[in-house]
Amino acid sequence: MKKIILILLLLLLTGCSKQPSETTETIHIHFTNDFYAFTPMTVDVMPGESLESHYYEPKLPGYEFVGWKTLGGPVLNEETILNETTWLFPVFEEKSFEIQFVTNGDTTIEPVSILHTESLILPDYTPEKEGYDFVGWYFDVELTQNADQVTLLTRDITLYGYWTPKMYKLTFYISESAQITVDFKAGDTVIPYEPLYPLDFIGWVEADSDTLFDFSSMPQRDVVVYMKTDSNSN
């Protein structure tokens, strides 16, 4: 009798050991990068577990991260619970950046804002300064980094205007077939041309003027001067 009881107990224990154990498989959440330049990531979570402990926000220069979503689905958040393997795609919003202008001239230009992928058409923003030619815009106040193109901004910037003194022409009119031309800037002193003839040469005058031209401080304009002699001074 004892042997029978012992055999029954062994059979019972053997039967219990063959019962399938309860297991719960994890699911895969794929944070994909689609066509954006950041590293994708896959995490394993339990069905019914929220994304909170695995949620992350990728960085993309020029864009604000909005959230993750499935294809054709709404934007999810950290509290979202998923029950099956899922592919999530990032949602970004393009940022806008402000551009300030320091003209260093006589006119001012109001700030403008452009989106990250937009370009600023610089020739549309040309200030004025009396007696100077505008060379262009620079990214730095020292005027060493030329802003030949402004696009793909990732921050607010300031542009600085660069100028060179305007150049004018001084023409010494000797005859219809002979003129001498020199360049000058406003305020320059120019040494006048001294002709060898006529012998009664006195100096240079502008048209319709009897007053000798003053070359010690040149004006902000082109100048044409003609020879004045004793014979035509009366």
List the helices and strands and how they pair.
Elements: H1 2-17, E1 27-31, E2 41-45, E3 63-69, E4 75-76, E5 86-94, E6 96-102, E7 112-115, E8 119-120, E9 132-138, E10 150-151, E11 157-165, E12 167-175, E13 178-185, E14 201-206, E15 223-229
Parallel strand pairs: 1-5, 6-11, 12-15
Antiparallel strand pairs: 1-2, 3-4, 3-5, 6-7, 8-10, 9-11, 12-13, 14-15
In short:
The protein is built from one helix and 15 strands, in the order αβββββββββββββββ.
List keywords for this structure.
mainly beta; Immunoglobulin-like; four-stranded mixed sheet; 1 helix; 7% helix; rod-shaped; disordered N terminus
Task: Tell me what you see in this structure.
It contains one helix and 15 strands; from the N terminus they run αβββββββββββββββ. With 234 residues, the protein is mainly beta. The chain folds into three domains: 25-94, Immunoglobulin-like; 96-165, Listeria-Bacteroides repeat domain (Immunoglobulin-like), CATH 2.60.40.4270; 167-232, Listeria-Bacteroides repeat domain (Immunoglobulin-like), CATH 2.60.40.4270. β3 and β4 form a beta hairpin. The relative contact order is 0.10. It is found in: Cell envelope. This is InlB B-repeat-containing protein.
